[in-house]
Task: structure prediction
Amino acid sequence: MDTPHAGTPGQHHPMRGMLICALLGTASPAIAIDCEEAWLMRNLIFDRAGYCFGSPLGQALFDNADCTTTAPKLSPVNAAKVAEIRQFEEGCSVDTSQTFLNARFIAHWMRMEDFPTPDWGESACFGWTGPVLTVRAGHDADAPVLGAIKPGDTISFGEMAEQGWEFIRYDRGVGWIAPDTFHPDFCTQLAG
Result:
């Protein structure tokens, strides 16, 4: 599917850009967005805009029951997100002839209300020691709850903050945490 290519600058998490420490001997989580997640994220944006999928994979995941067009009009924000995701997808090859996608946390992605914009920097907090943090489907206090970050979790950042909200990956899923709830002092170790 062809989509407009555009980019917009985003906010970067304050931890990005500073290398805190090398984590020798520590299991590293899958921090970065992978090809399957990128494909899913981009196509969820199109699905929400009414796109009718032609591929077996698109039809299996999105079912076309409520589709309206093969050329949806995306908002400027979503067009920019799609363009960023497409840049990330360069070199990826998702087999759309199959009917199963091996994306991590697919149930969380399918419930997502606000999709993040990939960032080219990554950082992680190992061994969260702070309070339980609510993880939501959007960058809004009224967005549905997807889960919670708990003490001991690993929290990864690889997308741009939006409206002060951080998009995170953690041991059991993905989603948004409210502004000013994450602080690196609550991390046993940091990377990124």
User: Anything to note?
Assistant: The chain has four helices and seven strands. The helical segments are 35-48, 56-62, 76-89, 106-111.
